[in-house]
Specification:
single chain; 166 residues; alpha+beta; 5-stranded mixed β-sheet
Length: 166
């Protein structure tokens, strides 16, 4: 692990030990924006090539992960939350258009839930945004993009209910 990623990981750990709640996550978001302005941090984060999902760090005590994502083409993700976790998205290169949604009708085992669009905004290089537990969002990219995502716990393999826009 590079010195830049190690230093950033330690900073995130220290912030979340002091305050694991929303205020601490806002401090992590601010620290991520600072890191995204550092050319050495970005180079170290994306030196693994064009991996769509690469774990840079997994904190053994708190369980949070720092991931690097490289998207080579346009992509749209369905509205979702991160289950019991929170996430922070930070844009390194390109642009991600973020949509936020409110749940109108909860999903069940036999039918999709319904969501209504409440807000849309771009994430541009150097900017980051916190999505606390239960906040439905959907990223879309019109071209190549790189981002850093921090999640409170691993969401890999998380079963998610299907939600459709109304």
């Amino acid at each position: 692990m590079s010195a830049e990623i190690e230093r950033f990981s330690q900073d995130v750990h220290d912030i979340l030990v002091a305050d694991p709640g929303p205020a601490g996550r806002e401090r992590v978001r601010s620290r991520l924006e600072e890191a995204l302005r550092d050319a050495a941090f970005k180079a170290a984060s994306f030196d693994g090539g064009a991996s769509q999902r690469r774990v840079l760090y997994h904190d053994p005590q708190l369980g949070f992960l720092i991931l690097a994502h490289v998207f080579l083409e346009a992509r749209r993700t369905a509205p979702h939350d991160h289950g019991p976790s929170w996430a922070i998205y930070g844009q390194a290169e390109g642009e991600t258009l973020m949509d936020e949604w409110e749940v109108v009708e909860k999903a069940s085992e036999d039918r999709a839930g319904k969501v209504r669009l409440t807000r849309s905004y771009p994430l541009v290089p150097g900017k980051a945004h916190v999505y606390n537990e239960g906040v439905f969002h959907s990223p879309r990219r019109n071209g190549p993009a790189k981002l850093i995502r921090i999640e409170g716990q691993s969401t890999e393999g998380l079963e998610r209910a299907v939600y459709e826009p109304i």
